[in-house]
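[#protein-structures] MJ: dropping TfoX N-terminal domain-containing protein here for a structure pass
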Amino acid sequence: MPRRPATPFAPPHKQRQAARNALLWVFEPLERDPGYLCKRMFGCHAAYLDDVLYLVAADREEPWSGLLVCTARDQHAALVQALPALRPHAVLGKWLYLPQDDSAFESVAAALADLALARDPRMGVASSPRSRGGTRGS
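AK: finished. structure tokens for TfoX N-terminal domain-containing protein:
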């Protein structure tokens, strides 16, 4: 039986997965921190420091095209006062959002990375522990 020639192209779903997130530069200052971890989330990239979620870089279509700031609602006013380009996210209103098309995106995103690195108490959402007991599906 003849072999099929190998194709240099991945199936469309594999190509989408391999797409590079153009906003990962925002996380570069965090990479030197020993507590830093980057994970995939919602098809985006999430930045954790010491198991606390601080930022999500979303490089997709609106409303997933910018930086999500993981914070509690009672911290929104203080963060928006400090960084007026922030607004509640259209889908995840519990978090703030900096749209990628904002004219101050680069400077505000850099400031947010600095705040995360400093473990600013207005930012961050602690990870919830996963259940280790029980059985999965049957």
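MJ: nice. The first helix runs from residue 12 to 18.
AK: one more thing. The beta strands are 36-41, 44-49, 52-59, 65-69, 87-88, 96-99, 125-126.
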